[in-house]
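Chain X:
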Amino acid sequence: MSRDARWDALLELVGKHGRVEVEDAAATLEVSAATIRRDLDQLAEQQLLTRTRGGAVAHGVSYELALRYKTGRNAPEKQAIGRAVSGLVAAGEVVGLTGGTTITEVARSLAVRSDLVGDTGPGGQPTLTVVTNALNIANELVIRPQIKIVVTGGVARPQSYELTGPLASGVLGEITLDVAVLGVNAIDTERGAYVHHEGEASINRLLAQQAQRVVVAADSSKIGKRAFARVCDLGQVDFLVTDTGITRDAKARFTEAGVTVIAV
């Protein structure tokens, strides 16, 4: 097992249980205890967890894996969701994208849509405008001549590469969107959509307020879960695009709340 794979697995264990013990992790990953200790020391140096005697615990009250360690989780489902969300966007529209691994897949699907290529030669105009506060998404799309990229200002969060704060709010307050695509950490029919960080929640909420249509893109592991900061209630959500892991009961409850559920 590679170092990156071990780190991903260790962070998954900490995220799930709140802590990890060296001996247990060594047995689970089938590596030596010395290797696990070294891995935990290096993850602690990056402030991704806190070392304890004999193991490690989650770093901070609200634990959140850094984006670079979440890319492989539920990857096929997220790619399918990305394609489905892309299909809800029409040429010529202005699309707001938050950060996160699922929304990154939405951006990648938009980037390769053949009907959006258009006339990108000298004098040609972009066929889609994307407004985002996610640095990684802007980096991927900026090389696509068919897509006009608008990046908010703000302070970057290393966990998600998202820009937050009053500079981001100032930009978003001056524009309108046809559709906002929100990545969330939790969504249910009682509490609405939530994320881990209050700064990201504020920006996501503003994107939703500025849009004519709101799409929440979330794999089924997020449904019925709880997170720290509220983004919006279901009254603002038009579509929930998720995977086929959503239960029949949950789908019915979202539908009753007025949300169109697309399960792929």
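Chain Y:
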Amino acid sequence: MTGNLEAFQAELAASGFPPLVNKLAGAGAGFRGGIAACDLGPLRLVSLDTPESACIGRERDASDGVNLAVKVMTRGRTRIEQGRGDAELGPADLVLLDPTRTLRFESTAAAHVTILVPRRELRIRPAQIDRLIGVRIDGSHGPGALVSVLAQELARSATEFREAEALRSAAAVVELIAVALEARLGDEQLVPDEWLRDRIVGYIEARLADPDLSPPGIAAAHHISLRRLHKLFEDQPLTVAALIRRRRLERCRAELTGSGRTVTAVAARWGFSDPTHFSKLFKATYGYNARALVTSNRARTTKTRTAGPDKDGGDQGR
């Protein structure tokens, strides 16, 4: 717990949480608040424990809007006004917030977990986001309840995840958040083709490590024909198979850059059962061998440990 408002606000800013300014209440000498932050892949989780308070968050530049915020109440009650929404939140309820917009809230002594989600990860159209901002999502049942429970558990255990586990778990969390948001939209969903395509992309992201992930299986899981599946993606930059391949390669490259695992092990983890085929795909996509990342990573590790010059890793890593 922090017994000083200024120190609490400094910790809040350092966590990456959208800043709150113009403190209206709860700012006396007896202020006590707690904050903890951790990462799960591209997600940032910020746990807050605050006294009774009322705050305003100013409008910010669009450049500050890389993330959207999903706030999950765990204790107490909060009223939040943002956009066209005016949400009264109790324990387990959640709300989607936009850090670039003016925010007002009044709260009892409360605890909550906020998940900062890269805007691009949600794959929901801006017009749909506008309708969801500041709107209460019931956390007592359905997809909202799953997000609520998961957010609280991740805030406690995210630091225990290994890198690959964190990436895969984050993809599943984003998919579940998208489901909860789309459910809240009710009958006014995306146009059918776009909605279905977005759902399929989320399905793919959550299952990239499955070696059996393929267009026929995806079509069957969504109760559509293979022809219909391909038609959904005919105006997109990548076909379904190419999308799966590219996203797997991206996951492999990220893991090879930051871990000491072998190329074969990483390839297998992300659904490539044939190491030779994987190596050819990787080089054709990025212009260098996957093994060069492992060699470069080991060279950097050795250099860090010995504080000596790196004699053979630099050229291979380029």
